[in-house]
Amino acid sequence: MEVTDSRLLDYMKEQLHVLMRIPSPSGYTREVSEYVRSQFEALGFHAWLTTKGGVMADLGGHQQTDAVQLMGHVDTLGAMVAGVKENGALRLTPIGGLQPQNTEAENCTVITRFGGKYTGTFQLENASVHVNGDYSTAKRDFDTMELLLDEDVHTPQDVKKLGIETGDYVCFDPRTVITPSGYIKSRFLDDKLSVAILLTYARYLRESGEEPLRRTYVHVTVYEEVGHGACGTVAPGVTELLSVDMGCVGKGLACTERQVSICPKDSHGPSSYEVTTALILAARQAGADYAVDVYPHYGSDADAALAAGYDVRHGLIGPGVYASHGYERSHLDGVVNTLKLLAAYLNMSAQTD
Questions:
Q1: Is the backbone of residue 344 left (phi > 0), alpha (psi -120 to 50) or beta?
Q2: pLDDT over 90 at 135, yes or no
Q3: 11: closest CA among 167, 227, 203, 157?
Q4: Which positions are catalytic?
Q5: What kind and span of H or E run contains 220?
């Protein structure tokens, strides 16, 4: 079996749809973590939950030294109830880099702490164009926007009777679509698309009977969007961390949604020169369509682990994703190219020279 087998791509699409249906803003990730753990175990790999709630999986490998740990994150952007306004609308505070302009008029779900879910829409205050003469120029931020519940509520007391309290999570609809032409459109492709790719790589290993040359672990983190996803867990013997996150697509960058992106430098600084060089060589060896880009406004799980003090080499790759932290877009070709790169790279010797 090749890593590009159509059955594997079908599996990736199935996993992506399931992951997208499980709401998981940073801090509210138990259900999705349990699901990811169960999928690694169903493939026959030892997997377990970390104390922080992430997932570790051991994919094996022929070499027992210089292990590599792949990292993707399953937590997403979202929001939390910060208070109830006098009209019964909810005031929100963002989780991670959620942008109010990108969530205007989006459907969402409030998950109460002790039972019950309620739907609503995140809107500008006074959102009727025929009433609000300043609609087009009004500032959009979390002070001027509000969540309107799909319930007959008009006062804070009405809302309290529903069981909605400050601190309840708000999850935005992902609106996941895979078009006939192969484009993948959804919120939260950052980074559920890469988690689906990592599960697909694990399935490739199991069904092909292959084993990576290097001992390989996967860490699916759950606090990446707030900066400390990989701060606390690196498996014994790991000398290298490879973040498999979204590849940036935008003005001034070479990558498209149909490629795999290799990042030599993000806003925290350069990746390991040796690791980046080996990734480029592996992409060429595998025939993967790739681009090398510097990310101007980006931090990854690898950065978090290094900041926590781990003495490891690090790198960063991912399928090209456009409109990051908004309604994002990638392509199945980008998925295939990422899988090609992963399979080739994990069969190369550790880059220590």
A1: alpha
A2: yes
A3: 203
A4: 224
A5: strand 214-221
